[in-house]
Amino acid sequence: MTMEQLSKDRSKTRQWEQALNLLYVNFRDYSKETLRTFDSEDIHQARVNSRKLLTLLSILDPQHTSGLYPVFKQAQKRLGKVRDTDVLIDSFKSRRKLAKEDGDTRTAELLEAVIKHQKDKRKDYRKKLAEELPKLTGKDLDGLWNDFLSGQLEDLVAKRDANVVMRELEVAYEQKKKACKTIFQQDAESPEAFDSLHQLRIAAKELRYTASAAAFALNQKFHAHEEIYKNIQEQLGLINDKRVWLDTLNSIGRDELDIGKKTWSTFTSTLRSEVLDALHQNDVVHIANRTKK
């Protein structure tokens, strides 16, 4: 190996190390703040940084030989449970406010019952997070992290190419898009169609996060991908969010919330209509059929 090549390899390794360390420090700092206050934004940022760490580790170490991946994955899972409940509570609070403004007291009461139920769930999720996150972000993780940087990183960086991984993710996205198109042609409002949209959203999210976290290692042609797939993910997310609201209500059940049959039926029918409206208004069929330029 020439001195020039050796210098390039070392520079490339330093780039990866700097990017990884920044995410790691952010993850640790936001996790620490999360355990102190359970602030929604701290939880969100801890989760985002853990997701980006998982993204970069998947590029470098797809076999997860370092032992880091399952630790960040478990942290992300626990953070995600609390974060998703935070978002759901805020969504139902907004709907309750609108119901009150419209003088719809029965719907407001239903939403108040849902919010209380979700707050009880969040309390359990926070408790589990408080129990597990300190173990997941302690000295053992620091040891694994330092061993990874000093022992494995250089060899992994030399063997792996983020551009190849991006191309693989593009192919996976195109395959899911094709499957989505096929299902939509059969029945655009079926459970299978919604599930295929969910899978397409996940594929878009993977591309978005890879384009963001690995931007320093990607060719120019991939630099617009973060924004492109963020837009697709958000459009699909509008449908997914409304479906989650409906699924949440159905999983709790009318009896658990002690809500009258007529109020329950009216509200769930309204939500169901909103899901279908979102499906069509956001031009999802066009997204599913979108061809890459």
Would you summarize the structure shown here?
With about 290 residues, the chain is mostly helical. About 85% of the residues lie in helices and about 0% in strands.
Explain this structure:
It is a single chain. With 293 residues, the protein is mainly α. Helices cover 85% and strands 0% of the residues. It is built from eleven helices and no strands. The chain is globular.
Key attributes of the depicted protein:
single chain, 293 residues, disordered C terminus
Write the layout of secondary structure elements.
Layout lengths: L2 H35 L2 H21 L8 H33 L3 H32 L2 H21 L2 H25 L4 H23 L11 H28 L1 H4 L3 H21 L2 H6 L4
- Can you count the beta strands? 0
Alpha carbon gyration radius: 22 Å
Helices and strands, in order, run as HHHHHHHHHHH
Q: What is the average of the pLDDT values?
A: 90
Estimate percent helicity.
Answer: over 70%
Quick one: overall form?
globular
Q: What's the N-to-C terminus distance?
A: 39 Å
Backbone structural class:
mainly alpha
Instruction: Please report the number of helical segments.
Output: 11
* Strand content bin: under 5%
Question: Biggest sheet: strands, sense, closure?
Answer: none
- Low-confidence stretches are 288-293
